[in-house]
Prior knowledge:
Elements: E1 2-7, H1 14-23, H2 44-48, H3 52-56, H4 61-77, E2 82-87, H5 99-117, E3 120-128, H6 134-147, E4 152-158, H7 170-179, E5 184-187, H8 193-202, E6 206-209, H9 217-225, E7 230-232, H10 234-239, H11 251-257, E8 261-263, H12 275-286, H13 290-303, H14 308-321
Parallel strand pairs: 1-2, 2-3, 3-4, 5-6, 6-7, 7-8
Amino acid sequence: xxxxxxxxxxxxxxxxxxxxxxxxxxxxxxxxxxxxxxxxxxxxxxxxxxxxxxxxxxxxxxxxxxxxxxxxxxxxxxxxxxxxxxxxxxxxxxxxxxxxxxxxxxxxxxxxxxxxxxxxxxxxxxxxxxxxxxxxxxxxxxxxxxxxxxxxxxxxxxxxxxxxxxxxxxxxxxxxxxxxxxxxxxxxxxxxxxxxxxxxxxxxxxxxxxxxxxxxxxxxxxxxxxxxxxxxxxxxxxxxxxxxxxxxxxxxxxxxxxxxxxxxxxxxxxxxxxxxxxxxxxxxxxxxxxxxxxxxxxxxxxxxxxxxxxxxxxxxxxxxxx
Length: 322
């Protein structure tokens, strides 16, 4: 299996949080710290509150290295052969690190996990939606350029989509395009099709979530014609009230329209999911055939921010599994 939309800070296990809390001398009471959502979650903004505590313990090189190592080894045990783990380096600067040091630290953790398990991975660096962090976002773009093909494969834009419109981040992605950095953008999750159109105008190669694209037939046709993959995260889409239930996801409509969709976890801890479980939900809910499941698996290969040599290696590995 392949996970293309997986947030580091939203996927640390409870054991990881407990260990990192001790390491950083940060008081941690599991009864009073919200790491996962439940039925009381009302929106994406509410969902994002679960990231607050994990970020407190991701402020040192040792912690970041451990977090990346722990996540990659855990998902390798779960049968994932390739993962693009995303995070915002600008959110790990409170103890004096710069964004380059943050990125070097997570790459070190991945490399250790790769040597031990054979899992293949890359990092996607997230710019953040906001109105006072433009300089930090530009720094993220420059950091991605420095580490591109050295552990970093792409950029992203994450955060409160409805509050901070995609259209206002044109400068960051114009720079990314100039520097030759591919990117995906969270769009069409908490906002409508216009957000997805803006991401596409910037040059996004993929769309994070993109569920509300279904509301615009011209957009769906464009996504299909230009083979723009959507990174669908089934349980997360329900948790953030993008849709009311799994059965409301436009999985079948996207497949029939020829849109290359992929299945991902988003935040393993916040949504309390595994990739295998997400596939099981989608297969049962939409009665997917074996061929349709294979299509989803290989869509993920085609969508990966990898060169053809890397993609062929993944195709070979999937062929051995299937």
